[in-house]
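ok, trying the design again with the full structure, not the truncated one.
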């Protein structure tokens, strides 16, 4: 029994020694971390790292001998504010016995000086602690005639990148300033053929189709042969043209002879005048036949071929394209007999297209002929500017809409008839003091932010946003003119921020 008691006492003694050693070690370490007093009795400045001591309220605990202050940022139901608790030998101190000032220095040089007054058992700051809570902090506290000073840094929402890394990532930095913002209305539309540049190709002569060179969807050039007909009507006109040429030649020779004889007073003036009249009539007949052939699309080269008898096939009739365009309809086949007024092709010039716009009655006071509008196809990623050339004078009884028309250039032929599009029309344009591109906005925690640049440092800046025109977003608060911010590829910084993590002391 005595041995048992003796063993128990030994164990207790050993335990007491261990506890005392632990306490002493803590005291020694704590003493080593204390700042040293100078001759004026003020504490020497020191900087706390991220592994700071925490007080009973979860805030940052700053110690100087037996005196301590716990700094918290409180934001439950109120704008963020400093709440500071003071302790002496671990006991809560009457806030009236403490005089406290906190200085916050942010990137860019902005300094906030916060004074405190008692509220309950703590000291409350007299200013809102604006987000982000990223700053260098100087704390000045007076208690019982003793002045204590501390410094520490609190970092939140900050990324560091070199100039080379910024360029490599394609990050674009712009300067905040005045922007002309637009209020836009969106109207539905549909791409249509330009009816002013659509023709129905007719042969103008009856005949039998001997060749077809183009199909629906093919592009053609002005003057290009698209089909060939065998036409008796053409043969008759060419024959008449050849005969008329011969009659003119004969009439001219007769006139030259009669003129010579009349001048030599061998022939009468009556014969001379009759020969001149006959020549004029034959020349008129020749021009008539020639104009008929030209009206059928024959060129000067074709006429020369007929006149010099090198045209071996008087019945061959070539149908040519009237302009550069595309065959959108084809109604002709080899061997088919066609009339002179038959629609054998429909040819469209697609270098421009129409956009039929549905204009609601409420927007008629905004939409005006001559306006420049923007036509978009979100599905195809197409965008083009056009001009409103027509606005219908009537509003449909059932639809309560009017019809507008926009002309859009289509040289690349991306705009296809039948495609549904959106037409944007500027309702008003107003200047705003600060606006940023839509793509510059990122979300961080529950804020809308941009990244503001300070040399190699980029820090989130929470914004209060206003109007949005689809390209620009108005900034009501949070960014000032002249500040540099990331306008493009800011998502890269957000990704880096997520990797690095961030502190948020409360």
């Amino acid at each position: 029994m005595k041995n048992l008691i003796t063993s128990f006492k030994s164990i207790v003694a050993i335990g007491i020694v261990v506890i005392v050693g632990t306490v002493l070690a803590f005291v020694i370490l704590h003493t080593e971390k204390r700042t040293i007093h100078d001759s004026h009795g003020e504490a020497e400045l020191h900087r706390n790292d991220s592994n700071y001591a925490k007080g009973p309220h979860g805030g940052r605990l700053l110690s100087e001998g037996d005196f301590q202050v716990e700094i918290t940022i409180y934001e439950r139901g109120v704008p963020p504010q400093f709440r500071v608790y003071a302790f002496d030998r671990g006991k809560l101190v009457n806030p009236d016995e403490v005089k406290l000032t906190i200085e916050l220095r942010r990137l860019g040089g902005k300094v906030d000086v916060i004074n405190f007054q008692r509220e309950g058992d703590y000291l409350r700051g007299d200013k809102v602690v604006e987000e982000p809570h990223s700053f260098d902090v100087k704390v000045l506290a007076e208690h019982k005639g003793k002045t204590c000073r501390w410094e520490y840094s609190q970092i939140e929402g900050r990324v560091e990148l070199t100039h080379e890394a910024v360029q490599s990532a394609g990050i674009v930095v712009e300067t905040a300033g005045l922007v002309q913002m637009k209020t836009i209305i969106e109207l539905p539309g549909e791409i249509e053929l330009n009816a002013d540049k659509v023709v129905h190709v007719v042969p103008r002569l009856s005949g039998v189709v001997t060749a077809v060179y183009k199909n629906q969807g093919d592009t053609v050039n002005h003057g290009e042969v698209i089909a060939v007909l065998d036409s008796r009507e053409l043969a008759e006109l060419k024959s008449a043209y050849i005969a008329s040429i011969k009659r003119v030649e004969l009439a001219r020779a007769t006139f030259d002879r009669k003129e010579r004889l009349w001048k030599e007073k061998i022939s009468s003036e009556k014969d001379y005048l009759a020969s001149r009249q006959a020549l004029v009539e034959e020349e008129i007949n020749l021009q008539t036949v020639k104009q008929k052939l030209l009206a059928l699309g024959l060129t000067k080269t074709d006429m020369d071929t007929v006149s010099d008898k090198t045209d071996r096939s008087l019945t061959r009739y070539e149908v040519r394209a009237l302009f550069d365009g595309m065959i959108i309809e084809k109604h002709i086949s080899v061997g088919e007999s066609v009339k002179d007024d038959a629609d054998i092709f429909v040819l469209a010039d697609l270098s421009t297209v129409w956009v039929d716009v549905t204009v609601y009655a409420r927007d008629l006071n905004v939409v005006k002929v001559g306006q420049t509008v923007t036509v978009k196809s979100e599905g195809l990623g197409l965008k083009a500017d056009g001009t409103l050339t027509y606005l219908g004078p009537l509003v449909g009884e059932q639809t309560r809409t009017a019809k507008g028309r926009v002309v859009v250039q289509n040289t690349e032929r991306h705009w296809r008839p039948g495609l549904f599009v959106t037409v944007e029309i500027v309702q008003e344009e107003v200047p705003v003091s600060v606006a940023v591109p839509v793509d510059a906005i990122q979300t961080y925690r529950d804020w809308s932010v941009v990244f503001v640049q300070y040399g190699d440092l980029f820090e989130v800046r929470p914004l209060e946003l206003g109007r949005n025109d689809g390209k620009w977003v108005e900034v009501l608060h949070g960014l000032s003119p002249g500040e540099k911010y990331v306008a493009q590829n800011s998502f890269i910084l957000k990704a880096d921020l997520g990797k690095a993590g961030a502190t948020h002391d409360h």
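Keeping the full-length input from now on. The chain has five domains: 1-33, 47-154, 160-178+433-500, 185-194+350-427, 202-342.
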